[in-house]
Amino acid sequence: TAAVALFTADLRLHDNPVLHGASGGADAVVPLFVRDGGIGSAGFDVPNRRAFLADCLADLDAGLRRRGGRLVLRSGDVVEQTCRVAHAAGARDVHVAADVSGYAQRRTARLRAALAADGVRLHVHEGVVTALPPAAVTPQGKDHFAVFTPYFRRWSATGLRSPLAAPRAARVPDGIASEPLPHSAGVPGTSPGLAGGGERAGRRALSGWLGGGLDGYADRQDDLSLDGTSRLSPHLHFGTLSAAEVVHRARGHGGAGAEAFVRQLAWRDFHHQVLAARPDAAHADYRTRHDRWRRAPREAEAWRAGRTGYPVVDAAMRQLRHEGWMHNRARLLVASFLTKTLYVDWRVGARHFLDWLVDGDVANNQLNWQWVAGTGTDTRPHRVLNPLVQARRFDPDGDYVRRWVPELAGVEGRAVHRPWLLPGRALPGHYPEPIVDLAEGLDRFRTARGLR
Ligand code: FAD
């Protein structure tokens, strides 16, 4: 008998319930990945993630080959392709991970119906993409938690499954054709500092993190210049690392750093459980506030380009383009700047992030944007992060700014955060004047929200 393991956001051999489930009763398994045309037409197939994905597929194929198997790659409609492969392999069972976006939920429903028409069963595995399945942590009488703190309490008290070992052998049925695998090197338009993908890279990064930065994480997580976070987010997004295994291993390590780190991983699960219950939150306000967002194309473009005249904002926006990644504290402050200081719709910012972020993810990106914009789950929806205060606290010596804004590289110390105060007022290297007065921005926001 044969089964199909349909890989989606779980591009790994270790701790993969989908692969484990498919291997269970079958003599042979088709490890299948479908380059889904729907992802491209929805605008999600962007260069940075496409390149990272190519690394992930190459590494998955290499891992399967070391075990006697190989990856089967197809392109097109995921339902149609999976049915074809199942038919060619004579498979009676297809295994896939449960996922939370509206798109993924519809895809699973379509797949189940199409396979059933051919007499093939679909097994949907929970707790593959997140550490805990959304349904495992729900409040009484409601379908999801809308506030993080009570969610986290419950999440922490809920048992986690033990990680599964990688399969020792893989046998693929004969005669199943695959398209050639893509190469990350051939993808145009990627960020120059983009990290490499793949399960082996992810596992190395995790081991390095557990043995290195984790202990200092609680003290360093918000410091922009120290860069003291794990940078595991792309691996969690593509599933080259299992969230459950990361939580498990961090808890095994113990200490204040691990505790703070696991709390961040719970945020990831939290946003997934919100989206699972409210898939429309990917584009519609989670809590409608009737914001009359400004159309400010020139200001939004200055924000995207890292030319707002606020060095800490500009440093962050340039880091995004250069690395396809941005520090969490920086994401918070640039999102607040766009949605509250400039009062531009959070969807404008979320779209730009999804164009560049290698970890760009519907659940985390859209719901964090909503959280910052005050349309989401933040219990203090009207808080505004002042970029100068943020800079003083989280880049006290200005090192982060000097790293990413070369025009200001020669300005010493924290003076770099207020270049308009430099003697002579000639801004070095054509660095722009501030595009907005912070007090005016705050005033406008307060008026718009009816806070005065
Ligand atoms: P660490 O600090 O090492 O944290 C470990 C892991 O915890 C992360 O890899 C991530 O999986 C999870 N995590 C940490 N903070 C958050 C958070 N606030 N929400 C959800 N999960 C979190 N994260 C994404 O993975 N994809 C996105 O598209 C994304 N968009 C964001 C947009 C905005 C406006 C904001 C404010 C945050 C966004 N985040 C997103 C969350 C967070 O910024 C990143 O997960 C984090 O910066 C990744 O770096 P790291 O792996 O070094 O994190």
UniProtKB/TrEMBL annotation:
Pfam families xref list: DNA_photolyase, FAD_binding_7
Coiled coil spans: none
SUPFAM superfamilies named in the record: Cryptochrome/photolyase FAD-binding domain, Cryptochrome/photolyase, N-terminal domain
Cofactor note: Binds 1 FAD per subunit.
Species classification: Bacteria, Bacillati, Actinomycetota, Actinomycetes, Kitasatosporales
Entry keyword annotation includes Iron-sulfur: no
Protein's name in the database: Deoxyribodipyrimidine photo-lyase
UniProt-annotated binding residues for FAD: Y217, T229, S230, R231, L232, S233, F261, D359, G360, D361
Top-level taxon of origin: Bacteria
Key words of the record: Chromophore, FAD, Flavoprotein
